[in-house]
Design goal:
Shape: globular
Keywords: Hydrolase, Metal-binding, Zinc
Strand order of the largest sheet: 5-6-7-8-9-10-11-12
Number of domains: 2
CATH architecture of the largest domain: Alpha-Beta Barrel
CATH class of the largest domain: Alpha Beta
GO molecular function, one term: hydrolase activity, acting on carbon-nitrogen (but not peptide) bonds, in cyclic amidines
Protein name: Hydrolase
Pfam families: Amidohydro_1
Number of strands: 12
CATH superfamily of the largest domain: Metal-dependent hydrolases
Radius of gyration: 20 Å
């Protein structure tokens, strides 16, 4: 059973295990770590003391690819291929969702993530101003992107541009350091080259990140080659979307050259093993190629409709097992690397919390 401690004031976690040593962790009234070590208790006058004996402290988990409000769609339209799942079930249902639906769905997602140790997440959806309300109230950290989809239509592209600009302005006006904005071009198959280029330029202008799906299925790759004469990562690069602030979700069908390109551009690749297995994308992210290339590989759950869970502890296990099975290597992605994907790698992907 999970124990969730909610504290007002300064907190001392006494005698907890960190990296094999027994230490104290002091947390000040602002919720910031004031000290870790045997002398940490001297840094604060603790209002609350938590007994950490027989417990291990690890960094908070970071979920680098979610559609949080899809908690409302958990278990809906199972056992379908991705293209049909999106076009026949998910998108038609989402067309009927309201801002209040997104607020409550995001709030439920925040609760679920808190219960499994997640402290920050990278989200793409719509009605994101209401998602920001939920995040603000629940106390997590989040990077929020409006899912930009123009389907090659100029009129729709203009509407998506306005929605993206409005979200970024809204988030910046909130002046909440826990909530940041990103640009969210959905994918190469739902966003035109003009739309992708606008997203890249706007992200650079606003000094914010890009959140995108990349090479989730073989069909995405073959369609991109047929339409543009190049593979998805190369296409995104030519549109300016591969940057050190880009989080690319899935990356299942990248070839070795694309992995090297992501490494060269400093892209953060978000592994979503449970979603990839549920939707049977038929290939696991080439973690070994991405790691060798220098790309930062982090971890995500995707939305609840394509996973059924937002539990990153569970996702770490799936990641380690899937990589071993898919690439026939018993030594690939050991436990320590899986934990790093869900903690330090995720934190690098979201970037530092802005100062006051």
């Amino acid at each position: 059973m999970n124990d969730i401690f909610t504290a007002r004031g300064s907190v001392l976690i006494a005698g907890v295990t960190v990296n094999g040593s027994t230490v104290d962790i002091a947390i000040d009234e602002e919720g910031m770590i004031a000290g870790i070590g045997k002398d940490a208790r001297k840094t604060i006058d603790a209002d609350i003391i938590i007994d950490g004996s027989d417990r291990v402290a690890i960094p908070g988990l970071v979920n680098t690819h979610t559609h949080a409000a899809m908690t409302l769609l958990r278990g809906y339209a199972d056992d379908m291929p991705l293209a049909e799942w999106l076009s026949e079930k998910i998108w038609p249902l989402e067309a009927h969702l309201s801002g209040d639906d997104v607020y409550w769905g995001t709030k439920l997602a925040c609760l679920e993530m808190i219960k499994s140790g997640t402290v920050a997440f990278n989200d793409m959806y719509f009605f994101m101003e209401r998602a920001a309300d939920a995040v603000d109230e629940m106390g997590l950290r989040a990077t929020l992107a409006y899912g930009f989809i123009d389907l090659g239509m100029e009129e729709k592209r203009e509407a998506e541009i306005k929605a993206t600009e409005a979200l970024v302005a809204h988030v910046k006006a909130r002046k909440n350091p826990r909530i940041q904005a990103a640009v969210g071009p959905h994918s190469v198959y739902t966003v035109s080259p003009e739309g992708l280029s606008w997203c890249a330029n706007f992200a650079e202008e606003q000094e914010i990140g890009i959140h995108i799906h990349l090479s989730e299925t073989e069909k995405e790759v073959t369609d991109c080659v047929a339409e543009f004469g190049k593979r998805p990562a190369v296409h995104l690069d030519e549109c300016g979307c591969l940057t050190p602030r880009t989080v690319a979700a899935h990356c299942c069908w990248l070839d070795e050259a694309e992995c090297r390109l992501l490494g060269k551009r400093g892209v953060h690749a978000s592994h979503n093993p449970a979603s990839n297995m549920k939707l049977a994308v038929n290939r696991a992210m080439p973690y070994h190629w991405l790691k060798t290339s220098g790309a930062n590989v982090c971890l995500g759950t995707d939305g609840c409709a394509s996973n059924n869970s937002l539990d990153l502890m569970e996702e770490m296990k799936f990641a380690a097992l899937l990589q071993k099975f898919a690439w026939n290597s018993q030594t690939l992605l050991p436990a320590g690397e899986a934990v790093a994907m869900a903690t330090s790698a995720g934190a690098r992907a979201l970037g530092p919390v802005p100062g006051p």
